[in-house]
Amino acid sequence: MTRIAVMVSGGGTNLQAIMDAIRDGRITGAQLVSVVASKEGVYALERAKNFGVPGVVIARRDFDSQEAFDQALLQHMQENQIDLIVLAGYLSILSEAVTHQYANRIINIHPALIPSFCGPGHYGLHVHEKALEYGVKVTGATVHFVNEVVDGGAIILQKAVEVRDGDTPESLQLRVMQQAEWELLPRAIDLFCNGKLRIEGRRVHIIE
Ligand code: GRF
After folding, report:
1. How far apart are CA 107 and CA 125, in angstroms?
2. What's the gap in Å between 112 CA and the centre of ligand 1?
3. Model-level pTM greater than 0.85?
4. Residue nearest to atom 13 of ligand 1 (CA)
5. Annotated active-site positions, please?
6. What are 34-65's pLDDT values in tens digits?
């Protein structure tokens, strides 16, 4: 059984998609052990509570240094014997101390087709604003392993979503969530938990 911690910063719709998939059997071999929020009061913590998963806040602002924050986060993961960390709308950047400790055991959902519209400053609605500004006809979502480069880890799954005339950042974000994020993230977690991902350099092979 793969012990999972999901890290969140906002509404938690991706967390909800994971919990629904566990409940419906679309994710097997997984135990959702902990939800870690980057700040108090985010609705994702309510969603965790409703699902019966312990939620905790580990906020960078509560620590004197990045090192102290990293230590607290790593201690939480080790105490809970976490095997896989999932970033689901988590808006802070993990330091190398964490990404090295959990090499190829942290996955993230990014609301664009990496390497487009990614990297520092590309999060939340900003990603869709950039896509609309550029005038792309297709965008989508990417699930990838997390390494020391922001949005730079090996890609696990991607799915394209059409951009429609008259789209706003909000309408595009919702379509990308509905048609891509909420499908890809649970699927990637199920593949990981069932040993179906084989990493060779930058390529991730899916063993069907
Ligand atoms: C959304 O912008 C989503 O595209 C990205 O994180 C943000 C919040 O997601 N992955 P969530 O509703 O908190 O899962």
Report:
1. 20
2. 12
3. yes
4. 12
5. 110
6. 999 999 999 999 999 999 999 999 999 999 99
